[in-house]
Amino acid sequence: MLKIEQLTKIYPGEPPVKALSDITLEMGEGLFGLLGPNGAGKSTLMKILAGLLEPTSGKVTLDALDLANPKDRIRHYERLGYLPQDFGFHGHLTGERMLSFLLELKGVTGPRGRKALVSELLERVNLAQAAKRKVREYSGGMRQRLGIAQALAGDPRLVIVDEPTAGLDPEERLRFYRLLSELAVGRLILLSTHIVEDVATLCPKFAVIRKGKLVAMTTPKNARENLKGHIFEGVVEQPELENLRNEYHVTQAMVYEGANKVRIYLEQGSPPVGFESVPPTLEDAYFISMKNESNGAIATGLENVAGGVL
Ligand code: ADP
Ligand code: MG
Q1: Atom number in ligand 1 closest to CA 194
Q2: Ligand having the closest approach to the CA of 45
Q3: Domain termination residue (choose one: 217, 249, 266)
Q4: pLDDT (tens digit, 9 = 90+) per residue, 248-281?
Q5: How far, in Å, CA of 310 to CA of 304, rounded?
Q6: What's residue 293's pLDDT?
Q7: Domain check: are 194 and 239 in the same one?
Q8: What residue numbers bound the domain in which 112 lies?
């Protein structure tokens, strides 16, 4: 459905910034996660897919529509919903007015008129009760749901949401997860995030990018299974942690009852005294892939995609 081929983006300047480097990816219907740390190139990719930024080279097609072709691009816009990372809300407007205004900008009326569409969309994202309240009184989660409402107008085939869960509290995040998974039926929702839990909870498939490069494309289950028998956990005091870091591949270290609960990745050999084998998590796989420069398939814990799509 969405095909990205050898996409590269270089921001001109002194020095130029290579934000995306030869990205090749294919996605079908459902939720697809794009996971990566700040500066990885997620927003750049999302803007290109939304048709708002020109790539330096490469090709994007959605259902055989080529984004580089101006005629196709117009049809692409009609099939697209986009919630940018820095979505500007007008706090003085009510939720209802704000949404109506956005639909007007987007040129979407709906079969029974804009007013009916506004009510329908607010209902859909569970904001009907708050329709007459000013957006400045909305919580972070309510704002993001309003953002999703505008993205859904026109029943798009592709919905792009850029870091929508950053800044939401745990309860709002769960609520937002539920909404996204409901909406993923019959369309592609592309979710960019730096939060591993988003991907672990929501996305049957995901890709990892780092420094503009695709590091992996896999499923949460495979990513965990690749590390089975290689993750060990133990509790150590602070000075010991430094030694461990020098000798082993530490994936996570959490302060725990005044000491450190440490997880290490061990390709072979014996673990430190007192460490036990534990089930791998997606966090382990992610942190290993972020640290590892070689991107080897086992070494990252994720399936390697250097040079192609799995
Ligand atoms: P992410 O969304 O994953 O945090 P971005 O796509 O925003 O990453 O940024 C990727 C890289 O491109 C970063 O190094 C960032 O500083 C750079 N970058 C982003 N936008 C611009 C721009 N308009 N001009 C120059 N460099 C940019
Ligand atoms: Mg971003």
Answers
A1: 3
A2: 1
A3: 217
A4: 999 989 988 888 999 999 989 899 999 999 999 9
A5: 8
A6: 57
A7: no
A8: 2-217
